[in-house]
Design brief:
Elements: H1 3-14, E1 20-22, H2 32-35, E2 39-41, H3 61-66, E3 69-70, E4 76-80, E5 88-89, E6 95-99, H4 104-107, H5 110-113, H6 119-139, E7 144-147, H7 150-160, E8 164-166, E9 186-189, H8 198-208, E10 212-215, H9 221-227, E11 232-236, H10 240-249, E12 252-255, H11 263-270, E13 275-278, H12 283-286, E14 300-303, H13 308-321, H14 327-334, H15 339-356
Parallel strand pairs: 1-2, 3-5, 4-6, 6-7, 7-8, 9-10, 9-12, 10-11, 12-13, 13-14
Length: 357
């Protein structure tokens, strides 16, 4: 499951009797904890090819979410990175939004989402302004926002001109194996799409020559395979246990993209493994950067230049000081982001929110 689905799973554990409204649902694609809930889907569920070609339906997603008319509930929680917060709510039911980001493809990342010159990108260029207007209007339906990071908190303030609290997404640290001994390979985990910047890792390790394993798939996969040298392995789409095993045996995780939060670095740290990450977005909040003489145990190295040169320098630095990264301390740091911490914090926020509603 992806990060947002793991957040939903934790919410479902807090509210085992809650109904779930979603644009579409593929049975078996999420955990049993989620599947046991009553799941109501939008009309998009019945559109052709929507499960594989959902980006084509972005322009109609606001209409799809507004097809829901929620009534008779004591509380509505929207788990939103796109349109979920725009559902129609009748009466004075309090509405709390756990926000992964304001709608990316109209505010900040339009170019990254629609790089290809095709009909979809043309339609999105024409609809960008009205979609932005809709997104802003739908934010007014929310009584209170929770942001997943400081990065998103700032974006909510800029886009919606409203304040928010921060609650970091959960990591199920118990799922990950902690081995003191490190393997000989570096690891990348994530979708191979442009904004993840897996190309930086490939370019850097083409030069370095160290073993690199890449777990994931996406639109960039074919291109990256063509330019990668023999020391780089592409593992494709793997199960959660397979990825956990890779974490436990790797030398360090490579995280070259800029994420709003980024669950992957914390999964690696839950396995006791250090992280070499670009110094931007959520990684700045989750990775304790190595600083000579600091009393605080480091969990990784943050590199400031988001290019192959910056990563190469970070890897070379890591090779020199690898012994200073202590698996027990790295694992301990990850526990501050554990699912139990999330559930406790979320419960406290809801209690306070309802008392003031």
């Amino acid at each position: 499951m992806r990060g947002g689905e793991r957040c939903l799973e934790a919410m479902c554990e807090l509210f085992p009797g809650a109904d779930i409204y979603t644009l579409l649902h593929i049975p078996g694609s999420v955990s049993g904890t989620i599947e046991r809930h009553r799941i109501i889907t939008s009309p998009l569920q019945y559109f052709p090819l929507v499960k594989n070609k959902y980006p084509y339906y972005l322009p109609v997603m606001p209409l799809a979410i507004e097809s829901f008319c929620l009534r008779g509930y004591d509380l509505v929680i929207s788990s939103s990175h796109c349109v979920a917060k725009g559902a129609r709510i009748l009466g004075r039911t309090p509405h709390l939004c756990y926000c992964y980001t304001p709608m990316r493809y109209v505010w900040d990342m339009h170019a990254q989402y629609f790089q290809k010159q095709n009909l979809t990108s043309l339609v999105m260029r024409l609809l960008r302004r009205p979609l932005k207007k809709w997104d802003l209007a739908s934010s007014r339906k929310v009584d209170a926002f929770i942001a997943i990071s400081k990065t998103v908190q700032k974006r909510i303030k800029r886009c919606y001109t409203t304040d928010s609290r921060i609650l970091y997404p959960p990591v199920d640290t118990e799922r990950f194996l902690h081995r003191e001994q490190r393997g000989d390979y570096y690891l990348v985990v994530g979708a191979m799409v442009p904004y993840k910047r897996v190309d930086i890792a490939v370019d850097a390790f083409n030069v370095l020559g160290y073993p690199l394993k890449i777990a994931g798939w996406g639109t960039e996969e074919a291109r990256l395979k063509k330019i990668a040298k023999g020391n780089i392995s592409f593992l494709g789409r793997l199960s959660d246990p397979e990825i956990a095993s890779l974490y436990s045996r790797c030398k360090a995780l490579i995280f070259p993209g800029e994420e709003d939060f980024g669950i992957v670095p914390l999964e690696a740290m839950a396995s006791g493994k250090p992280v070499l990450a670009f110094a931007g977005g959520g990684a700045v909040e989750t990775v304790v950067n190595y600083e000579k003489g600091s009393a605080r145990p480091a969990t990784g190295i943050l590199f400031k230049e988001q290019n192959a040169g910056g990563l190469i320098r970070a890897v070379k630095s890591f090779e020199r000081i690898e012994r200073l990264f202590l698996p027990e301390e790295i694992k301990k740091h990850s526990l501050a982001f554990d699912k139990k911490v999330f559930k406790t914090g979320f419960g406290q926020i809801i209690e306070e929110f309802l008392s003031n509603a």
